[in-house]
Write a structure and sequence with these properties.
This protein has 383 residues and is of the alpha+beta class. It is 34% helix and 21% strand. The chain is built from 10 helices and 16 strands.
């Protein structure tokens, strides 16, 4: 199946990486930060900060000073691989080095490099959840706790608004997800195992050049439990296949969450689908620059409750280099939407936690006059 989107780029150009680093350094100077320790993991939630300045999705730690080259410490096998050059000429401004002591080498290598710099200002860290206790303790011993600051917000702020190149990659991811959904409509039937569905989904996404992806799956009749792996369930008549199809083309995710009817939805699921649609339609209508995320969330939650269902989860999240890209579409997220932000919107309507439920949604780009749905699909069938 051929996507409707024509490929223009497959990764972020090096010129854009350099511009990002320049803007990061402007923020560092304004806050008196002499060097950043940027940490990432090779997973769906914590690789984005590292990839934002390197195009490398394998995690590791980057030492980012105010002047001169960055230093990226990664696994020795990766550091010595010529495949690094496939992401562009990053070696002209990033020194790629192997860490030297297994999984714990960062305390000696990256922190050791910062200590040798003898910086006088603040030392910031980015991606605290990926740093680990041993590395943080080493950093504290090297520069003193009073000089360490969490500077993750610098990256989150810059990453929130996407460039034209980033949007192009996300459009490609959204098109791959659409095509994958079309493939699944031919596969879904009573008796099909969730292992089969998961395998065919992964196969499709990799064959369409998504180097990594997230597939939340639930094939347990009417129930909605947001499993991240198959559990041996088989599709049932009257139930759904729930999936979050989430390819990451060029490092950038787009998400297509869907509850696919196995055949005819049961009356209970039709009621829940109608409640979902009421909440979703309201939330979608509120997506525009200046709208506050928590206001959108509360409005959707209240509308779903008016129709006899609950949503105990967030209604979506920012999306980009990470699946959850800095904030969630929840009642406590007082984030104002801006032109160029991207987000996945997928409220759910359930009877209870662990009970029957229905959810679906799409990836959106916030535009000057509202929001653009990046998917070509429409999951409302008039229930």
């Amino acid at each position: 199946m051929t996507s409707a989107v024509t490929d223009r780029i497959t990764q972020i150009p090096v010129s854009e990486l350099k511009d990002r680093i320049s803007r990061i350094r402007d923020q560092m100077r304004a806050r008196g930060i002499d060097v950043l320790l940027v940490a990432g993991l090779q997973d769906i939630f914590n690789r984005g900060h590292v990839r934002y300045v390197s195009n490398l999705g394998g995690g590791g730690m980057i030492v980012l000073p105010l002047e001169g080259n960055l230093t990226h410490f990664i696994h020795p096998v990766l550091a010595g691989s010529p495949k690094i050059d496939k992401v562009g000429d990053i070696r002209e401004f990033i020194d790629v080095r192997p860490f030297g002591d297994g999984a714990y080498g960062f305390a000696n290598d990256s922190v050791g490099l910062i200590e040798r710099m003898a910086v006088r200002g603040k030392v910031g860290y980015v991606g605290g959840s990926a740093i680990g206790v041993s590395v943080y303790n080493a950093l504290r011993a090297a520069v003193g706790e009073d000089r360490i600051v969490d500077a993750s917000d610098i990256f989150w702020k810059l990453r929130a608004v996407k460039s034209p190149n980033e949007i192009e990659l996300m459009r490609r991811s959204a098109a791959i997800a659409d095509d994958c959904y079309d493939m699944l409509t031919e596969l879904v039937a009573p008796g099909v195992s969730d292992y089969t569905v998961y395998a065919e989904t992964k196969k499709f996404l990799f064959e369409h050049e998504s180097p990594y992806s997230l597939e939340v799956i639930d094939a347990d009749g009417p129930f909605l439990n947001f499993d991240r792996n198959p559990t041996g369930d088989v599709l049932e008549s009257g139930g759904t296949l729930f999936m979050e199809i989430t390819p990451g083309y060029g490092g950038y995710y787009a998400q297509l969450p869907v509850s696919m009817p196995v055949d005819e939805l049961s009356p209970d699921l039709k009621r829940l689908a109608a409640a979902w649609h009421e909440g979703f339609t309201l939330g979608e209508s509120m997506l525009r620059p200046g709208a506050v995320v928590s206001d959108v969330s509360k409005a959707m939650r209240a509308r779903i409750a008016e129709h006899g269902a609950i949503n105990p989860f967030s209604h979506g999240h920012a999306i980009g280099l990470d699946v959850s890209d800095g904030w969630v579409l929840g009642d406590q997220s007082d984030v104002p939407l801006e032109v160029g932000m991207t987000m996945a919107v997928h409220p759910a309507a359930l009877t209870e936690i662990g009970g029957a439920g229905f959810t679906a949604g799409y990836t959106y780009l916030i535009t000057e006059d509202g929001a653009e749905r990046l998917s070509r699909h429409n999951f409302y069938y008039g229930w």
